[in-house]
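Example record

Each entry pairs one chain with its bound ligand, adenosine-5'-diphosphate.
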Amino acid sequence: MQKIQKLPNDLINKIAAGEVVERPASIVKELIENSLDAKATQITIILEEGGINRIKIIDNGLGLASDQLPLVFERHATSKINSLQELENNSSLGFRGEALASTASVAKVTFQSFPEGQKSGYQIDHNGEIKPVAITKGTHIEIRDLFYNVPVRKKYLKNTSTEYKYCLKVIQEYALCHPEVAFTLEHNQKEIFSYSSTDRINRITQIHGSDFSSKLLPVFYSGADLKIEGFIGKPELAISKKPTQHFLVNGRPIKTNTFNYSVKQAFGSLIFPQEKPQFFLWLELDPKDVDMNVHPRKIEARFHFEGIIFRKIIRAVKDALQKNDLTKKLNLHKSSAESFIPKPNYSTSKHQSQSISFPSHKSYNIQGSKGSLINYFNQNHSQNRPTQSLSDQTQKPTLMPLVQIENSYILCQSPSALVIIDQHAAHERVLYEKFKAEANSQEPRSQELLTPIQIQLSSTQIETLKHSTETFQKIGFNISVIGENQIAVTSIPLKFSNNDLDTVIQSLLNDIEDNSDFQNLSDIEDIVINYAACRGAIKFGQPLTKDEMIALIQEMEKIQHKQYSCPHGRPSKIEITFQDLEKQFKRTK
Ligand code: ADP
Ligand code: MG
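Structure tokens for the complex follow.
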């Protein structure tokens, strides 16, 4: 016969510790939260052997009175909440009253505290003995010999350097959440860092360095129930592996793939599909709209209005991207010293007038394997080019094209920099935006072919086509299936060349088929538009006239922030500031 019995307290605590205390980093996290809840403004963390041998935290917070000490290692004993209502509206980081109890059941803990209004500090050790102690105001907690009494758990710990890295990650996350608090870390008797109290951007700089933080853009959204503030990396900071992505919700770092994805969505085609943006976003919302009580270590949360927050994040990030210059800056020089040489006398009004003095109709042939390396607008071209002529212009570009290099790059001058445009990438983006707008306008501009083009397809390709005919139609293709393996194309998007149409259609269908992720209409539409834009864009190596360069720049400027990259996420223009040139030519320090 089975017999049910109540487990002894000590065993209950050890079982609970399995959830709360996974490794030294989980203890460090709980201790920092306690110090923050105690309103500390200075927190020092001392680790030995990745925290396995010793973790000590010293804070200058409110402390705990000596008569409260017998309760600190008691399970479900907390000073932070009293009722369910308080739990729901709780804004402190801790509330379960189990971190110290769990830790004390698997390690040797000493808790010392010296609160305001008491004559001296007192400590309670892991045997429960209470005695006075000479310490500074605040709380000192020391944890030794983690898992000394549960060897199975100790076996699962990684080596000290990995455990140290986990601790470091946690400490830096909380340091980011609370830049107003000074944090110091010591490991194996060596000071690792000492961050002074500061603001958010400076805390990011303390952690990631100024090269990184200089590539961040501010994000701001403020509504009645939600505030989003922080920084996103410019598209050039996006990476595919291990991006820095922080959501700091009501003072606590939260893991949320959903919101990470919302930021990626906002970047859209500004970055490569496999890349992930880097960001630091602080979210503030009413505590009752977020449930922190869904994970034993409170590293995940449940949001009551997840869909709304998701959309607000997209809006806030898009706004930040639209407001800012995303041009990739060529980092020629690392020094941040300000130039003391006056700026070149670049007159904006002069370059905005029609009397730009282009070195017209002149060709320099610098010999090289490709023949004419520099082309000074001396050629005639007819197809696939930005068509606006100089005389049409009613809004004038802020960039002045100087020269086309290798028939591929347009060198321009802006009031503060030399700008190099990748003509294919730039035009590809212009066409992509144009085709997308046409697809959305419900009026695809297509050209009817004089004679329909018949194309043979495999049965799988025919199947894919049947599922995507509507999309093809939306952007101006008219295609019908006329036999088991045969289709007829009767019209194609305007500006789309019908050369190799069979290859284009087949590649498109293969692309759609390969991307099983691309289930919905808008994804398929995107592939088709991408393809059309890529094929329609002026080619790398194609000479351009002066007017065509100007027209391209004008069209780029019309699409605002989208101009900075091609639809696949490659940069379409980069710039070298005059300040950087001055440094390179040693005209300034
Ligand atoms: P919780 O944080 O959920 O209340 P803990 O086990 O982490 O539970 O802590 C138990 C109690 O010990 C806290 O409620 C608080 O009163 C006290 N305490 C812990 N750390 C500190 C500290 N650094 N400063 C002051 N009081 C503390
Ligand atoms: Mg706590």
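Residues 30, 34-35, 38, 59, 61-64, 72, 78-80, 94-101, 139 surround adenosine-5'-diphosphate (ligand 1) (CB under 6 Å).
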